[in-house]
């Protein structure tokens, strides 16, 4: 390719030789220097845009569900004035009780009570045994059969009285109830007595008598006289199970039953 500057110079030289002294002014020409164009780089394929992660809805913090209340935390159902219906309601609460971990995990069932809901006389023992735990009724074993004979000797029937225990669950191996177990069951047997409103309570054994009367006095010193529980007259005597081991104590129990019979207005048997 010809150099453009050289071509212009040659043109001017030819004009001078032809006698042309002046030329119209022309813009000063300077070589145009072009910068090399930037190389076109291959375009990297566009990185696909990751789909936007859906925004998780705001977590609504709800309060944790409350722990089911224990029976002593449950407000007792108001009494309807119908003892049979109120006892049935209370029996359902007792059946759900889990206050004593050992007892509620070893029991077959709770043992509530049995008899007339309008009885004048209540017999109150200490706790269910193996037979009671199996059948769900208090005093049905050997001691229970002896209690039935005592009731019949008073010219009464089991259906005429009401029978319950201080504890509603059998202690393993028929051990004595622990003090805290008696306290856990206290709201139940106290409400049971509130519903029944008997005239007399006969406590069978030291645990029943001491638990009901809140005393540590021995059964030997408690028996033979009346005590008071919320206006109800309480008589304590030996437990039928104790009589099975100590038959000589039956005479003392019969003396106590005659005290009850006099107050109940039941004629005493005549001596032969």
Task: Supply database-style keywords.
single chain; 272 residues; alpha/beta; Uracil-DNA Glycosylase, subunit E; 6-stranded mixed β-sheet; 6 strands; 38% helix; 10% strand; elongated
Explain the overall architecture.
The chain is of the alpha/beta class and 272 residues long. The chain is 38% helix and 10% strand. The chain has a domain at 82-264: Uracil-DNA Glycosylase, subunit E (3-Layer(aba) Sandwich). Strands 1-3-2-4-6-5 form a six-stranded mixed sheet, sandwiched between helices. The longest helix is centred in the C-terminal third of the chain and has 18 residues, at 179-196.
Describe the secondary-structure layout.
Elements: H1 4-17, H2 83-95, H3 101-106, E1 113-115, E2 121-125, H4 130-135, H5 142-153, E3 162-165, H6 179-196, E4 200-204, H7 206-213, H8 219-222, E5 226-229, E6 232-237, H9 240-245, H10 250-264
CATH architecture of the domain at 82-264: 3-Layer(aba) Sandwich
* Nearest-integer average pLDDT: 83
Radius of gyration over C-alpha positions, nearest whole angstrom: 52 Å
Helix content: 25-40%
Number of distinct helices: 10
CATH class of the domain at 82-264, named: Alpha Beta
Low-confidence stretches: 26-33, 64-75
Q: CATH H-level name of the domain at 82-264... which superfamily?
A: Uracil-DNA glycosylase-like domain
Q: Strands across the major sheet, in which order?
A: 1-3-2-4-6-5
Please state the overall shape, judged from the principal axes of the Cα atoms. elongated
The helix/strand order is HHHEEHHEHEHHEEHH
